[in-house]
Write a structure and sequence with these properties.
This protein is about 40% helix and about 15% strand. It is α/β, with parallel strands linked by helices. The chain has 2 domains: about 5-90, no CATH class; about 105-445, Metal-dependent hydrolases (TIM Barrel, Alpha-Beta Barrel), CATH 3.20.20.140. Strand 9 (about 255-260), helix 11 and strand 10 form a beta-alpha-beta unit.
Length: about 450
């Protein structure tokens, strides 16, 4: 029915409007439409009732209706204002997902490490899991499980192979955790984690390993036509499990698709807290990665190694979980020039949802996440190079993720916050999934088994 708007109050919080329709003379009704966001509620005023029961002339009837509607609209205006200002902030984070971001890709989750080193069960829902207080104190309150990820609309993750070097195991943070002392132990522990991912996909129908661009495309195409599944692409964080570059083809044959050569320093390059260049073995590893089509992840790489890697390696590059040094000035973050070098390679950078990497302290909020994302977007001039690499359960837990989030199911809050900060729904879709899908497809198509 074609509408003519007779009256409107439009505010930053919503709008309320009086609508008259073309066949008002036939129906003898006018309609008040209350609109908040995309929702409309229509209230009819019956003109016949007013005239017959109140014995009003036409002029008096319209005067009464006009006064009543103005009072009603004023009331609704203030209701909308107070709802949005005082009530909605307390209600909107109860699980409703207002922004349609489709689904989410998370580029960094240490699933196998949590299972093998910490004894957690990825197949058991977080709310049903009980663990010793000493473990929670060390690793943080757990965030991830298959069910929790799927309910949060996380449909594709990059799961890491991560092994702990002996030098890092000496810290109070990592004391007592499984670690490696030599190449053979690093290899064995890495293979055990790789075995876990294959076994998980084989026994749990909710998980699907993705090893090629065709498998990625098929997985995405069937996402809405089959029961929810979690796609899993295998990465390595710190390349010490690869005992020599010539061994890489073995790992690729078993499904390894991305490699971050560093965590701390490794036999291949300098890393976080341990600056240094690429080693001769590092150059050989990059050459093998390029030959076999393995994606390079520069997160954790020392600055000297970072620049040398971009010069030596011509394949697909990402930073799976890195934030901006502009806000947190440590070698773990990316400087503006490093970001620009990645942008020149059409790379994607995953923002880490860890307070210490967002603010340098123990407290952070969603505004801090958006500051890091916005900074990269400002350097790029677009939103095609920023995404999410949460690093959830990567040595920290619920206690140190940005407020007001309290679980993985709260990731939708980030989509809402982005929209409130001026990002469009298309931008949110880029950040939540499209950018990772594009760069992963670009890399996986080059894989040589």
């Amino acid at each position: 029915m074609t509408a003519i708007w007779l009256y409107a109050i439009i505010t930053p919080f919503g709008s309320v409007r009086l609508k008259s329709v073309k066949n008002v003379l036939k129906e003898r009704k006018v309609f008040v439409v209350i609109q908040v966001g995309a929702e409309e509620h229509e209230l009819p005023f019956d003109l016949v009732y007013f005239r017959k029961n109140l014995m009003l002339s036409t002029v008096k009837m319209w005067t009464l209706i006009g006064c009543s509607v103005n009072i009603l609209l004023t009331y609704v205006h203030f209701y909308v204002f107070f709802y949005q200002r005082f009530l909605a902030p307390n209600l909107k984070h109860k699980g409703r997902r207002a922004v349609n971001f489709g689904y989410m890709v998370d580029s960094h989750e240490d699933i196998a490490w949590n299972v093998i080193a910490l004894g957690r069960d990825f197949t058991v829902r977080v709310s049903e899991w009980q663990e010793e207080a000493s473990l929670t104190a060390k690793a943080g309150q757990r965030l991830l499980s298959i069910a929790d990820l799927l309910e949060a609309q996380v449909r594709l993750i990059i799961g890491t192979i991560f092994v702990l070097p002996e030098k890092a195991a000496r810290s109070n943070w990592n004391e007592g955790l499984i670690h490696y002392r030599n190449e053979a132990e690093a290899y064995a522990q890495g293979q055990e984690q790789l075995d876990y991912y294959h076994a998980l996909a084989a026994r749990d129908e909710r998980v699907q390993l993705i090893q090629s661009a065709a498998e990625l495309d098929n997985f995405i195409a069937s996402m809405d036509s089959q029961p929810a599944k979690l796609g899993l692409i295998i990465s390595m964080e710190g390349a010490d499990p690869i005992t020599e570059p010539e061994q890489l083809s073995e790992w690729v044959g078993r499904g390894l698709r991305l490699i971050g050569p560093a965590w701390k320093g490794t036999r291949y390059c300098g890393g976080t807290g341990e600056p240094g260049p690429l080693t001769p073995a590092g150059y050989k590893l990059l050459a093998e990665m390029e030959r076999l089509g393995v994606i390079l992840d520069v997160s954790h790489m020392a600055e000297e190694s970072f620049y040398q890697s971009l010069e030596a390696y011509k394949g697909t590059v990402i930073a799976s979980h890195s934030n901006c040094r502009h806000y947190v000035n440590t070698d773990r973050q990316l400087s503006d020039d490093m970001i620009k070098q990645l942008l020149a390679r059409d790379a994607v950078i995953g923002t880490v949802l860890y307070n210490r990497f967002l603010t340098g302290g123990t407290e952070a909020n969603l505004g801090d996440v958006i500051k890091h994302m916005s900074h990269i977007c400002e350097l790029a001039g677009h939103t095609r190079s920023i995404a999410i690499g949460s690093d959830y359960d990567g040595g920290f837990g619920v206690e140190t993720i940005p407020q007001p989030m309290q679980k993985v199911g709260d990731l939708y809050m980030l989509a809402e916050a982005l929209m409130q900060h001026g990002f469009s729904e298309a931008d949110v879709n880029n950040i939540f999934h499209a950018n990772w899908v594009r760069i992963l497809r670009q890399g996986l198509v080059k894989i040589q088994n």
